[in-house]
Structures are given as structure tokens and as C-alpha cells.
Amino acid sequence: MNDWLDEVKWNEAGLVPVIAQEEGSGRVLMLAWMNREALRLTAKEKVAVYWSRSRRKLWRKGETSGNRQRVREIRLDCDGDTVLLTVRQEGGVACHTGRHHCFYRRLGASGWQSVEPVIKDPEVMYGR
Amino acid sequence: MNDWLDEVKWNEAGLVPVIAQEEGSGRVLMLAWMNREALRLTAKEKVAVYWSRSRRKLWRKGETSGNRQRVREIRLDCDGDTVLLTVRQEGGVACHTGRHHCFYRRLGASGWQSVEPVIKDPEVMYGR
Q1: In the CATH hierarchy, which top-level class contains the domain B3-125?
Q2: Parallel, antiparallel, or unpaired: how do β-strands A105-108 and A111-114 relate?
Q3: Cβ separation of A106 and B78 shorter than 8 Å?
Q4: ipTM of model over 0.85
Q5: A83-116 pLDDT, tens per residue?
Q6: Which of A92, A99, B55, B83 sits at a 20 to 30 Å CA gap from A120?
Q7: How far apart are the C-alpha atoms of A53 and A45, rounded to whole Å?
Q8: Residue of A112, A115, A118 to mutate for B, most B C-beta atoms under 10 A
Q9: How far apart, in whole angstroms, are the C-alpha atoms of residue B115 and residue B98?
Q10: What is the DSSP letter of A90?
Q11: pTM to 2 decimals?
């Protein structure tokens, strides 16, 4: 029974934005997108599976980098059009730039400033 | 100078998804959308101003309910297509249903279950 998937309000492209928040730290790691199949698989496998809008295919987070997200909780908002995941971030790196999370640019007086260190070399992470 | 607004990757509708996270608790309160003007005003006034996709106009969060969001920090993600706000939520209620935040439905064995209490009566909140 996947009736719960019908309660999600998929957008015109059949997608829903998904926020990944780290268990414990409460850090917002990233925002990505899921289609129906991605959300079904995420709930089933308890590992985050997103939809890559650029590559137009399912994207098992960490399949290349090893930085998988173990899903502890899945929530839906009041309008049914946004999903919130509570995750355990394997490797401690959610961002493809090698940072802990994707929101590393902060708005200051002179524009966006990078305020988070690179923890892992992306070239090593992706075996380039 | 609003050059920093040019670094945001607006979608085909000229919008960007914005996550509001509560200062202190780390709670993810809601996801809403901003256009360029909404983000400019939010940065200038330090109060969250969103774009209502249903009403197709700027929406000063709390203009009716009083539940304004004081903005402490504005962040941009690696791809430049998602904004994260750190906010102080006035009135302690971010959701139009009268709950502290919008992600009050949790996925369980029998589907989505409401797991957060209503703190304020929406009818009182919106003066209906």
C-alpha cells in the first residue's frame, strides 16, 4: 500500500522539494528533489534517493562519494508539497564541494561569503 | 548594490525555494518561495517576505497573523538555487494551521500521522 504517496502534492514536473536535516546537530544539509519513485524507495530502503533534475534519473545519494544519508524520519508539511528528512550523514559530508553541508555561503555587507571549510577534497571524493 | 541577487539561480518562474529554520531550536519551520524583490526586501528589512504562488503577490509573513519572522542570517547553497534563513519566529507559530512549524506529519506504518499540537486557534489567529 502506497496510498501515502498520493497525499504528496507533486509539482507540474512530478517532483517535490526535499530538505535533508542532520539528526543531532539539526544542521540543514541540503535541498534536493524527489519524484514518486524516489520517495517510495527512500521510505523502503531508509536511505535517501533523490531525482537528479540535471541528469534526469534517480540519484542514490552517496553512490559515488560514499556519503550516504541514512533516513531516520520522513515528514510532510501542511500543504503536502515539501518533505523533510531527518538523516544521519555518512562521511560527515553532504555537499559535492566537500563541505559538511551545502549552505556555506552567508550574506554579508559585501555579498555572499564562504564561511564553511572544505573537509574532503572533491577530487578524492569522486575519484577523479 | 544588489549584485548578490544576480548570484541566485532563479527558476523558470523567477523564484527560489527558501527554508526557514528557527534560531536556537534548529527546527525547520517551513519552506516557501521568494522572487528577486522578496529576497531584496527580506535582506533590507530583516523580516521574511515571501512570494505567494497562489495569490501571485508579495507576502509579508505575519502581516495577518502577527507571526513575523525576524531574519538573523541568510545563506545560499552550493548551486545557488536554494536559500536558507535563520529566523526568530514571533508568536512561536510558523504554520497557518496554528502549529509551531509546518512539518507536523510524520510517516509511520499506517501513512502520515499528525504528531504536533495546535498551539493557536487559526480562526483567532486570522480573525475569522
Answers
A1: alpha beta
A2: antiparallel
A3: no
A4: yes
A5: 999 999 999 999 999 999 999 999 999 999 999 9
A6: B83
A7: 21
A8: A112
A9: 13
A10: G
A11: 0.96
